[in-house]
Amino acid sequence: MKKALIIVDVQNDFCEGGALAVPEANEVIPYINLLMEENEYDQIVLTQDWHPADHKSFASNNNRKVGESIILNGIPQFMWPDHCIQGTFGAEFHKDLNRDKVTHIIQKGKNTEIDSYSGFQDNNHFMKTGLDDFLKYHEIQLLEVVGLAMDYCVKFTCTDAVANGYITCLHFNGTKAVNVKPENGRDAIYDMIQKGITVLG
């Protein structure tokens, strides 16, 4: 069975000192590097949040405060600080992440009008990123997922992976939650387990 490692959004803005820093995010990087060192993966894919500066998920572009919610193209949208803007240092992968064995990069969140938490598709399920096509082309059946943040982009990448027919495993030690609300990370784990995702570690 061919397997791939999906490394979600290990970018400067989500790490320590970043515009949308995930608590303890930097702690997952050595774990992810060790996974790549100790395991043989047929593919290693990075996802990268890659927003235009005028993205509608940014509070600053809606005259809203961070933490508020609006309805954007028919679905609720949390208002985030400006982050992972195309071409900026914040959008770059963290320097400590070993990329020597990476075989593919998927950029998401490029459409100004809609956010894209999942590595597979936007939040409206209108546009695919090409990740599923890439994995199917390479006959991948098993996905192991790590990265940031557990209660948003990691969770939605995992649930879309299951929906697309992949055996899906989350490495608990390779992810951290934003925890906008204290229970978000815990709830994300419960939600993923209910959807058939195996949580390792």
Q: Please, could you describe this protein's structure?
A:
By secondary structure, this protein is of the alpha/beta class. The protein has a single domain (3-199), classed as Rossmann fold, CATH 3.40.50.850. 21% of the residues lie in helices and 24% in strands. It has 4 helices and 8 strands; from the N terminus they run βαββββαβαβαβ. Strands 5-2-1-6-7-8 form a 6-stranded parallel sheet. It has a two-stranded antiparallel sheet with strand order 3-4. Helix 1 links the parallel strand 1 (2-8) and strand 2 (43-49). The protein is globular, with a radius of gyration of 16 Å. The model has no long low-confidence stretch (mean pLDDT 97).
Any key phrases for this structure?
4 helices, 24% strand, 201 residues, 6-stranded parallel sheet, alpha/beta, globular, Rossmann fold
Sheet having the most strands: 6 strands, parallel
On the 0 to 100 scale, the average pLDDT is: 97
* Amount of beta strand: 15-25%
Structural class: alpha/beta
Q: At the fourth CATH level, what is the homologous superfamily?
A: Isochorismatase-like
* CATH architectural arrangement: 3-Layer(aba) Sandwich
Q: How many individual domains?
A: 1
Pfam families: Isochorismatase
GO molecular function, one term: nicotinamidase activity
Domain Isochorismatase-like: 4-199
Protein name: Nicotinamidase
What order do the helices and strands come in, and which of them pair?
Elements: E1 2-8, H1 28-38, E2 43-49, E3 69-72, E4 75-78, E5 104-108, H2 131-137, E6 140-148, H3 150-163, E7 167-176, H4 184-194, E8 198-200
Parallel strand pairs: 1-2, 1-6, 2-5, 6-7, 7-8
Antiparallel strand pairs: 3-4
Helix pairs in contact: 3-4
Pathway: Cofactor biosynthesis; nicotinate biosynthesis; nicotinate from nicotinamide: step 1/1
Domain Isochorismatase-like: 4-199
Organism: Chryseobacterium elymi
